[in-house]
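Inputs:
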Amino acid sequence: MNKMFLAINQTNISDAPRFYHRGIMLDSSRHFIPIPLLKKHLDTMMYNKMNVFHWHLVDDQSFPLESKTYPNLHKKGAYSENHVYNHEEIKELIEFARIRGIRIIPELDTPGHTYSWGLGYPELITICWKDGKPFQAIYNVQGQREILNPIQNLTYDFVSNLIAELKGLFSDPFIHLGMDEVYYSCWESNPNISQFMLLNSLNSTKDLEQYYMSRVLTSANKLGYKVTVWQDVWDNKVEVFNDTILQIWKSEEDWRGYMQNATQDGYNVVLSSPWYLNYIKYGSDWYEFYKVEPTDFEGTEEQKKRIVGGEACMWSEFVDGANSISRLWPRASAVAERLWSSIDLNDVEEAKFRLDEHRCRLLRIILTYENFQGFNKIKSIRIIKIYFANLKQKLKQRALA
Amino acid sequence: MNKMFLAINQTNISDAPRFYHRGIMLDSSRHFIPIPLLKKHLDTMMYNKMNVFHWHLVDDQSFPLESKTYPNLHKKGAYSENHVYNHEEIKELIEFARIRGIRIIPELDTPGHTYSWGLGYPELITICWKDGKPFQAIYNVQGQREILNPIQNLTYDFVSNLIAELKGLFSDPFIHLGMDEVYYSCWESNPNISQFMLLNSLNSTKDLEQYYMSRVLTSANKLGYKVTVWQDVWDNKVEVFNDTILQIWKSEEDWRGYMQNATQDGYNVVLSSPWYLNYIKYGSDWYEFYKVEPTDFEGTEEQKKRIVGGEACMWSEFVDGANSISRLWPRASAVAERLWSSIDLNDVEEAKFRLDEHRCRLLRIILTYENFQGFNKIKSIRIIKIYFANLKQKLKQRALA
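Outputs:
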């Protein structure tokens, strides 16, 4: 080889993703995840050909998103002034993601999961009643103040203005509006809500939920947003625009039924149920993530086409800056391959070598990904030998055929 | 306060450990743990008042310990030349530990767990037979070459010289000689061993194990070493010097029976069974480690005094540089408090605040310890309020009493 030139083979790479939505959901409310770590996640997503960062920004536990419209949201709702993402940081992060081929979809989860909103704006929150007294927690179901009050224009104006602020800040055509786990008990306990329902011919709390969601979804729609929501909206038979994407998250075992019914009802879906990577156990659990086949449910070809993709979710009850990277990666690489590669690339015994090599690649770029297979030199060498022996055999057979 | 002086209260601290052996066992064979990370562990041990680093240096998977006597041990047995602890590094580490009040006890595990020894010195290893043929693996029990050959002087000289090398390198009066999981099937399969047993009136493989162990323990004793071994030696009714310490590691559920019987037989014991921290599950598992009471078994006061302490073990099948620190700490802090503090300091509901605060302290010294309680601001504040309300109540009652 000439010292001045590097000769490379001419190579044609033919590759394309199977699903166009290949996502990671990170929760920055239960624990704050600093911007430098979010960038590490985005870098790693790029190296795993993932293209959607679903950012579960706010929740009951904290409101780390700077709001210029309602500054008490972050001033009172964040863990501290050091636990806030300001607009400059967010804009820079969006650009950081963009040049890596990653969309950022922000989530504004309502009407439940809003305890932290009430710290700055208590007037937004439904007052729960019990035994004829206001301001009561209904334990085992929900805390004292964690669901928006759906019977006042104040709430709708507030949510709408906040969606507008996000529309100006984030660049993606989609917003995630949450709408999961809307527990009715607090609404049912409140006499003003009962009266409102009576006056407005809302016959059940489900109708009230429908009323809330219609107004918020219409606001988002008017602002030019397309919407994703958690599956609960559809579970509760609330009517939504038919371009709304449902994120299927319930039941690690029975997600197939949800996929079947939601696509039958004509909705596009993102699958997450089998990919809650915050749940851990001893040993290699990536096999289970890898073996999931999103189209593995009863349904027509038309229905299968409604699967836009999937997301690996990392809820942060037990995750923060200390272990956010090492707990998610490289386990999420198994999900990444499932969402990118063709349906027949599904042999765990072959995948483990690819993924192990991939971990080495990731480690080389100075990130910390846990050893998720328990591989060690001896075992690896033995297994790799078997692998190549089998491969040789296969190629031989093909040559003879 | 005067600007030039810092006034502090005169304070008398009266504190002493309950057990004198408060250890962490790290496994550097299944995966290599770089020296800088070992130092982080030692630092963290100091901040947790732990004083014994039990270093499981070598095992089947690799031999990362430099040997000047038998250099092919690390040259052939380590994962690579970059995965070796050389003598200079080890000496520096011993001093690093010493000034932090920590002893380092090296472990040389024989006669099982020695596959990596055979890579450089195959003549040491027992050849397993099957169906009249040598060099056969006996799957589900053990690999083809992973237990020392106990019928040749070569083996005993080798082990003895290696113990001597460690004696010159490490400064602690104790060595750990392993001796766990001595599976008999390979020895039983080998016709030369059968013949040897016949000639030497060894009636069972247990007798052969006894023969091996007596010779090795005698060597260590002659070299001036005191010895710790895993409980298997005693399980198999092998006689050992009565100053040998047994490390109880079997059965997370029934360790009490082992403690009872081993102390009844007059042995000093180190407890590890309930503290295998490599096993993980979702959520807070430190409660279980914390609630363990080492003296909680049937036995006399004399027996209870034979508990020298305990060790939290981190076997490294799924742990390496990427997650070694965050997986062990601060979960091991629960074990540290159990081994240091008095028997009646055992209220989990109180401990969780101390341990949470302790995690913050550890984080401040720039280490990465996972959030092991799922604490977040809201919950913490609420719980802390309840805690202080209860405390106030208690103090009031005491004042009145």
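Remarks. Residues 377-400 of chain B form the longest helix (24 residues). The domain at 21-346 of chain B is CATH 3.20.20.80 (TIM Barrel).
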